[in-house]
Amino acid sequence: MASTDVATVQNPPSPEAEPKYGGYTRFEIELEFVQSLANPFYLNHLASQKLLNDPAFVAYLAYLQYWSRPPYIKYLNYPGPTLKNLELLQEERFRQDIISPDLVQALAAEGVKASVEWHKDE
């Protein structure tokens, strides 16, 4: 994100045709990244790399909140955990606490329980 200009950061990408970076559009790259935030083990990895302490990365997480609105939300495979964790990442306390293996395990267990409950209703 360091080489991205301000206009690019402030305007979400269009799912329509746009320039490619390494063969992928910005839309595809951001979609893959934001969906990875549903994984508490990945959040722990980001914390262990000190990325969640980096003001530029925190600003990027704030920018990614556009995924919670139409038309972008329809592209998320797991909108519940993805958007929940994206929202939690807006809180400094959560960004500090996710380094804890206990919190990671609790979030992972919560995700499994939610999945089992959802399948029971089918």
From TrEMBL:
Membership in a protein family: Belongs to the Mediator complex subunit 31 family.
Principal cellular location given in the protein's record: nucleus
One GO process term, biological-process aspect: regulation of DNA-templated transcription
Name of one Pfam family that matches: Med31
Protein name per UniProt: Mediator of RNA polymerase II transcription subunit 31
Gene3D superfamilies, per the entry: Mediator of RNA polymerase II, submodule Med31 (Soh1) (1.10.10.1340)
Annotated Polar residues bias: 1-11
